[in-house]
Automatic annotation (TrEMBL):
Name used for this protein in its record: Nucleotide-binding universal stress UspA family protein
MF terms in GO: ATP binding
Location of the UspA domain: 2-134, 144-280
UniProt-listed SUPFAM superfamilies: Adenine nucleotide alpha hydrolases-like
Similarity section: Belongs to the universal stress protein A family.
Xref: Gene3D superfamilies: HUPs (3.40.50.620)
Coiled coil (residue ranges): none
Keyword Repeat: no
InterPro entries xrefs: Rossmann-like_a/b/a_fold, Universal_stress_UspA, UspA
Keyword Transcription assigned: no
Organism: Microbacterium marinum
Swiss-Prot/TrEMBL keywords: ATP-binding, Nucleotide-binding
Amino acid sequence: MAGQIVVGVTGARVSRRAVDWATARAVQWKQSVELVSVVGGAIGTVGEAEVLGAAQTATQQLLDGEAERVRTAGVTVSTRVESGNPVTKLIEASADAALLVIGSDYRGAGTGPARGVHGIRIAAGAKSPVVVVPDRDLGEGSGVVVGIDGSSVSEHAIEFAAAEADRLSEQLIAVSAWTPLHTPRNAMEVYPDLYLANMQSTTEEILALSLAGLSSRYPDLKVVRRAERGHPSQVLSEIAGDARMVVVGTHGRGAIARFLLGSISQEVLSHLPTVTAVVR
């Protein structure tokens, strides 16, 4: 796959994980990498120029060190230091990228707050697919999970996930979740068996239709279909907890997309179960 991978780099420990992830992908798909770091907070006050200059110099030194690690892997790499709003600058950088990779300081349940709003806004507003790398050892996870709802966005997510699974020599775990119709408390304590069976079979049909033709493009790819009852983000997160990657789609577009994702993708991204790709 051609194109450049842009990596948002900060001084946080997770940035090294993000750079490493992007480098490994670039090696396999013969892509180049651009490391971008944004110095934010400048407001033009008197005496600020000297502080800003020192910050930019230190940031460039940080990027130079990371670039050397990428170069050692045989990947063509460039660096760029920007000043301004990190969200805006990384969204702009994604316009000409094949992929934007950022890190998250969220380390899992019980380790602190979920990912901050900046990462969600970047993922929502980016022009390219975004991969968010969590700050933890992912261990021996296997499989690439993709959430499917039968929409056109799902088609893009499936294609991205299938390519990643094929690249990693992993199975593709295609997940579609269904939730029974909500009723007021005690209105229907037990759902009719026929209703539940039809919800399950309809979801299985959506999976089958969404995956049709995939085997012709990826003949060696093993695909596992899972139609599950439950809230979609919870189902995806539970299954993805043992996976190498989860891929979700989003409809986000335009100015409002800088602040909002679809509810499912935002919920998954807010509680990263593993490396998470957001595709539109």
